[in-house]
Amino acid sequence: MVLYNGATMLKDLTALFAPQNRRLIKLTTVARDEQELLLERFSGTESLSELFSFELSMISRDASLELKSQIGQPAQLAIELATGESRYINGYISAFSLEGSDGGLARYSATLSPWLWMLSRRVDSRIFQKQTIEAVIRTVFAAYGALPDFEFQLSQPLKTHSYITQYRESDLTFVLRLLEHEGLFFYFDHNQEKHTLIILDHSRDLSPLPQQPSIRYHSASVTETADSITEWRSHRRLQSGRMSIQTFDYKQPRNQLPVGMPSLNEQGNVDAYEVYDVLDHYSHGTFKDGERLVRQRLEAIEVQGKTFTGNSNCRAMYPGHTFELTQHFDHDRGSAEDRSFLLITVKHEGSNNYLSDESAGYKNEFVCIRHKIPYRHPITVARPSINGPLSAIVVGPEGEEVFTDELARIQVRFHWQRGDSLPQGTTWLRVAMPSAGSGFGHQFMPRIGQEVLVTFLAGDIDRPLVTSVL
């Protein structure tokens, strides 16, 4: 493909790269002067509880730009709004390629990702004890120095977990798994300087779009000076109408804590199909905890029951904020509450007109729900699978031969635990015996220093159990 053909395609190369040249979308990278990169077009997706990703197509006067000089470096898109303000998208270059050159101009492509993406490059195995999910995530982020920028905006305290294991998972997968299972979700907030990860436990306090809190609907055939929604669609999907769970705790074996709850979705004259799930051991210790867990799982189902999709040229749109829909033939008859929508996903496309006579442009597709419906992200990240038992060494205080607690449990150290994995032992583990029960049985307790075989209940890495001595 010929990118540059003298005066025919590009009359003034100097004017093209002039800093004062006004464009709809401006790109800022570490490349400067002769190596400056100009954005031809971009596309990308932002979603609640997902990492954003933008594909950039660029041109430059320098065909010898060192690719590795760009990866991992910050970059920024500035999209000019109808008001003259800018909507910023900040991130880091996670991929960078030279696509071709004809001697006049070179074409490059890049992927723009959030700082959180960097956590996908590190894999670890470690144990956390008696900590909240927030404390664990803060520990993970601390290993990345000044890179993470995040805020926890929680409406209530998080529960303390006795035992959490990261096992052969990337830091990113581990963090996403913890957030999902705790019922937390996130979005990225951008300004002129940076992007910040915002972690929440409820969507009710999410604020309107700062640069366009109200958006008008009108047909695409009508001329409009302000950004507006040109297509609007509503969708219903039949969902389960009830959820019931129960668990098992060996400390209170006769109480399985069954909890059931109907969905709040109004789905017409259909049966309330039930989801019955036997959750992980010790998933909830009280009925209150169980009800909270069921409510969160139901909300993840309910949020998919009724959704709205559309197309627009609203450059101010991004997930994690709400907008009021105005001048729509159907929704204008409803209450103000029913006209308030929360953006879940926005798919962007935009282009400049550096190498063509066509005008620059922007468009998007979006998914939203009514703001009054609590948002909860579905569980999509599975726990790490354990296909068989692991061996470990029994640990205890110096000078002791046998070390147990009042329930005859022992502590072990797995072979994969590193020296900086604190505490050195795991949590207290039960030991399987040939015969055991209320008022009878016998015990042969593993000694400190012995190797034991550890299995995991239902393959759950967070539920270890000693089954034998090797």
Automatic annotation (TrEMBL):
<dbReference type="InterPro" id="IPR017847">
    <property type="entry name" value="T6SS_RhsGE_Vgr_subset"/>
</dbReference>
<dbReference type="InterPro" id="IPR050708">
    <property type="entry name" value="T6SS_VgrG/RHS"/>
</dbReference>
<dbReference type="Pfam" id="PF04717">
    <property type="entry name" value="Phage_base_V"/>
</dbReference>
<dbReference type="InterPro" id="IPR006533">
    <property type="entry name" value="T6SS_Vgr_RhsGE"/>
</dbReference>
<protein>
    <submittedName>
        <fullName>Rhs element Vgr protein</fullName>
    </submittedName>
</protein>
<comment type="similarity">
    <text>Belongs to the VgrG protein family.</text>
</comment>
<dbReference type="InterPro" id="IPR006531">
    <property type="entry name" value="Gp5/Vgr_OB"/>
</dbReference>
<feature type="domain" description="Gp5/Type VI secretion system Vgr protein OB-fold">
    <location>
        <begin position="405"/>
        <end position="468"/>
    </location>
</feature>
<dbReference type="Pfam" id="PF05954">
    <property type="entry name" value="Phage_GPD"/>
</dbReference>
<dbReference type="InterPro" id="IPR037026">
    <property type="entry name" value="Vgr_OB-fold_dom_sf"/>
</dbReference>
<keyword id="KW-0964">Secreted</keyword>
<dbReference type="GO" id="GO:0005576">
    <property type="term" value="C:extracellular region"/>
</dbReference>
